[in-house]
UniProtKB/TrEMBL annotation:
Domain Apple residues, every copy: 343-426
Bilayer topology term: Single-pass type I membrane protein
The organism of origin for this protein: Carya illinoinensis
Family: Belongs to the protein kinase superfamily. Ser/Thr protein kinase family.
Name of the featured protein: Receptor-like serine/threonine-protein kinase
Presence of keyword Kinase: yes
Keywords: ATP-binding, Cell membrane, Disulfide bond, EGF-like domain, Glycoprotein, Kinase, Membrane, Nucleotide-binding, Receptor, Serine/threonine-protein kinase, Signal, Transferase, Transmembrane, Transmembrane helix
Keyword match Metal-binding: no
Transmembrane segments: 439-460
Length: 803
């Protein structure tokens, strides 16, 4: 490529350093025989983002090889994001950066002594070093393209977009930042920052080998110890975890045209900084905002609250270990338990039967070194209570069950965000009143439950025997459920086929509410008057009975106000039925596309519906442990309650029907044409982003009052999207909006919605926002929306690669 040949000769001939400078600007590569010579030769990345060359830090005359932002100013004003010879500076501008004969990138002094080397052992010839626009310097073999070394794997103090901070169990190598000694000395300082996992991956800063700061675990969207991260969701962080000890964190910056990075400064503070003009750098976040952010500030069982005058206190039920020290403000010894734990596992029936309990502390940075399990909240609590060594537990929907079996260290009270922490204390610390009355009530309730359970069990067995069916949840022989979890046995109400047949008037046609993708749905009324919706599943489910049951129980646990509740199930012989809550206002399409009912849906209601669907979807994608992709989101699958609140139905059906959610590729494409993302419709590839596509279509339908399928029959496939795109380009969104809402004085909101809708239906999955970002956009938490690209299905295009 653009090789700088014989720079020396050019310089010599030109006798003009400016010419030399210009010449060297033309390349991003060092390849033998070319090299960089101090003082003013540099290479510059192809797009002009970064420069590599010799520099002196502020207040220093020593010379180092480094990489800095090239756009406006020169170092030392422009931050240096990487340094080669950190510990071995040159005292005079006599250095050379070149590629040695063994294929390593080396810094040489005037005597040709190696001060620094990339230290790759496998010697390869034909190597060249290239500075990329990401700021990464790569050492590459020319013909094969094999990268033997890259600066992103050997960072200095800066973490840039696309750089991965990683822990690798396979290679034993961790990629970490290390601080400079001071702002004028790039030598290795005492602080480092990187990833660490004790069951749950986190970002840590260490002072030497001691933890100095921690981010708290990652919940799929933010680090829960960094509650302010919510406001900066646009800088998409991601965790890639192979669950075998190797993982990395990386991030993208939303505005690629601005220089942006994190830097670990000499004081051990991790700063997020960016610059608009290349000269002035703004710090938009820092890891240490108060004393409480210093790891373990208040010692064991202490709780740090930066809003308090005295920041450290003991967790409730605990007292300072050394009261004198504590009162002096030396909190390092921490706190100890006021009353020893009883830890009674089994009820002994005596007066001593006073079990330990939990005190709830809200909005917490959870302590360090949590154990983790995937169980749900009540199981999490139960397990902790049953394990005498368990000191506390917490449950976060994006993480699961966390518990602690050792001292609770590094807890902090936030004023917003955070997680509820349940700390185990002795019975007498729980603050009981009215004990006698409580005991009587509890005993009565327990007797009642036992009695009812026995009755149900008896009845169920009896009915099952009579019809040769299965009693979900009470089936003792085949053990449908995990036998270890006896309390799971009462999770899902069972309905007998007889009960459901009678409730639906023998599945009478007049009771039929609709036909879903997996079978017809009937309205029913139980004997106690409760109205239900019964889905009679098509008989050809690929699943066995056991998997079906387990799946139904799992799905029934997904509870969210924007999801239709699954009330129970029934399996008898060939019949498989699911029982849902009944929604009086039927489905969204029945309302939205009906000229009379449409009047009910003013803009506020429509927006509420859009937002509700978004929240339901967010729960499925992110907040539920299962990470469910709906795959058939459409107007007829959105049901409306009395107040026209939307509830998503048919979620988890792909799971119930044996579709493997872990596999992002399916031969069996379920879904409805028009709502299906191109990569799903054409290649069977589904992901959260294919649901986002369907959501976008739905959003445009709701705003425009037009059915996607109407357009579909008009030849040009799915051209509601085409129409929307045309109106967008003509800046004529009021034509697209439903006339019933467009004069409501909410034009701005309506247009914003359309804009978001267009972002959701973009052709390429990677361009579409995630549902959490969609919600932030709808709520105007994200103000500047990107410009949408042309939606799918608007031109006669067949894209083969839609990832
Ligand atoms: C350089 O030295 C001056 C004067 O001592 C000081 O004000 C400035 O902060 C120093 N700059 C850096 C980056 O250390
Ligand atoms: C290169 O390797 C040698 C020997 O293993 C080591 O002493 C030296 O510090 C390494 N240099 C760098 C820059 O990693
Ligand atoms: C080095 O590159 C040249 C041309 O690019 C090629 O002919 C030669 O085989 C390469 N040498 C090695 C060792 O790969
Ligand atoms: C390696 O590639 C670079 C850039 O593509 C080129 O300038 C250089 O001449 C090549 N080196 C060799 C030894 O082929
Ligand atoms: C870092 O650790 C060193 C050695 O233990 C200690 O002297 C220093 O005060 C610590 N720095 C901070 C900022 O805590
Ligand atoms: C760990 O290193 C191995 C071997 O280099 C690599 O294949 C793997 O992708 C790495 N894992 C992570 C999570 O970086
Ligand atoms: C990125 O930042 C530049 C400079 O501030 C601004 O002009 C541009 O609009 C921003 N782009 C986005 C997509 O926010
Ligand atoms: C917590 O984890 C440790 C080690 O990882 C293990 O020994 C201990 O049994 C676990 N405790 C619980 C309650 O899961």
């Amino acid at each position: 490529m653009r090789l700088v040949r014989s720079i020396n000769l050019s310089c010599f001939l030109a006798l003009l350093s400016s010419f030399c400078l210009e010449f060297s600007h033309a390349t991003d590569t060092i390849a033998p025989p070319s090299f960089i010579k101090d003082s003013d030769q540099t290479i510059i990345s192809n797009g002009g983002e970064f420069k590599l060359g010799f520099f002196s830090p502020a207040n220093s005359t020593y010379r180092y090889v480094g990489i800095w932002y090239a756009k406006v100013s020169e170092s030392p004003v422009s931050p240096v994001i990487w340094v080669a010879n950190r510990d071995k500076p040159l005292k005079t501008p006599s250095g050379i950066l070149t590629i040695s004969e063994d294929g390593n990138l080396v810094v040489l002094d005037g005597e040709k002594t190696i001060l620094w080397s990339s230290n790759v052992t496998s010697s390869v010839s034909n190597m060249s070093a290239r500075l990329l626009d990401t700021g990464n310097l790569v050492l590459q073999e020319n013909t094969t393209g094999l990268i033997t070394w890259e600066s992103f794997q050997h960072p200095s103090n800066s973490w840039l977009p696309e750089m991965k901070l990683s822990t690798n169990a396979t290679t034993g190598k961790n990629v970490q930042l290390t601080s400079w000694k001071s702002s004028s000395d790039p030598a290795f300082g005492t602080f480092s920052a990187g990833t660490y996992s004790f069951n749950l991956p986190e970002v840590f800063i260490w002072n030497g080998s001691s933890p100095y700061w921690r981010s708290g675990p990652w919940n799929g969207m933010i680090f829960i110890g960094v509650p302010t991260m919510k406001a900066r969701y646009l800088n998409r962080f991601s965790l890639v975890d192979d669950k075998e000890g190797s993982f990395y964190f990386a991030f993208e910056f939303s505005n690629k045209s601005l220089p942006f990075h994190y830097v670990l400064n000499a004081e051990g503070n991790l700063l997020e900084t960016y610059s608009i003009n290349g000269k002035d750098w703004v710090v938009s976040w820092s890891s240490l905002t108060s004393e409480c952010d210093v790891y373990g500030k208040c010692g064991a069982f202490g709780n740090c609250n930066p809003k308090k005058k005295v920041i450290c206190s003991c967790l409730e039920g605990f007292e300072p270990k050394n009261i004198e020290e504590w009162n002096r403000g030396d909190w390092t010894s921490g706190c100890v338990r006021r009353t020893p734990l009883q830890c009674l596992k089994v009820s002994t029936g005596g007066k001593e039967d006073k079990k330990d309990g939990f005190l709830k502390v809200t909005m917490m940075k959870t302590p360090s070194l949590a154990n983790w399990s995937s169980v749900f909240e009540d199981e999490c609590r139960y397990r902790c209570l049953e394990d005498c060594s368990c000191m506390a537990y917490a449950y976060e929907s994006g993480i699961g069950c966390m518990s602690w079996t050792r001292d609770l260290i590094d807890s902090q009270k936030f004023s917003s965000g955070g997680v509820d922490l349940y700390v185990r204390v002795a019975y007498s610390e729980l603050g009981h009143k009215n004990e006698q009355g409580k005991v009587i009530v509890i005993v009565t309730v327990v007797i009642g439950i036992v009695f009812m359970a026995m009755c149900t069990l008896f009845l169920c067995r009896w009915m099952a025997k009579r019809r040769g069916g299965t009693c979900l949840g009470f089936h003792s022989e085949e053990n449908l459920l995990d036998s270890k979890n006896q309390d799971k046995l009462q999770e899902l109400p069972i309905f007998s086929l007889e009960e459901l047949t009678s409730a639906t008037n023998n599945f009478h046609l007049s009771n039929k509410l609709g036909q879903g993708g997996f079978g017809p749905v009937y309205k029913g009324k139980l004997l106690d008057g409760q109205e239900i919706a019964v889905k009679r599943l098509a008989r050809t489910s690929g699943q066995g009975l056991e998997e079906f049951m387990n799946e139904v129980i799992v799905i029934s646990k997904l509870q969210h106000r924007n999801l239709v509740r699954l009330l129970g199930g029934c399996v008898e012989g060939e019949e498989k039925l699911l029982v849902y809550e009944y929604m009086p206002n039927k489905s969204l399409d029945a309302c939205l596309f009906d000229s009379i009912k449409q009047e009910l849906l003013d803009w506020k209601k429509r927006f509420n519906i859009i937002e509700g669907i978004g929240r339901g979807l967010l729960y499925l994608h992110r907040d539920s442990r299962l990470r469910i992709i709906h795959r058939d989101l459409k107007a007829s699958n959105i049901l409306l309650d009395e107040e026209l609140n939307p509830k998503i139905s048919d979620f988890g059906m792909a799971r119930i029907f044996g579709g493997n959610e872990d596999q992002a590729n399916t031969k069996r494409v379920v879904g409805t044409y028009g709502y299906m993302a191109p990569e799903y419709a054409m290649a069977g590839r589904f992901s959260e982003k294919s649901d986002v596509f369907s959501f976008g279509v739905l959003l445009l339908e709701i705003v425009s009052g037009r059915k996607i399928s109407h357009f579909y029959h008009n030849e040009q496939a799915a051209s509601l999207l085409g129409f929307a795109w045309e109106m967008w380009n003509m800046d004529n969104l009021s034509t697209l909006a439903d006339p019933k809402i467009s004069k409501s004085g909410f034009e701005k909101e309506i247009f914003r919605c359309i804009h978001v809708g267009l972002l959701c239906v973009q052709d390429f999955a990677k361009d579409r926002p995630t549902i959490s970002i969609v919600i932030s956009m709808l709520k105007s938490e994200i103000v500047d929306l990107p410009h949408p690209r042309q939606p799918a299905f608007t031109a006669n295009q067949i894209t083969s690669e839609n990832e």
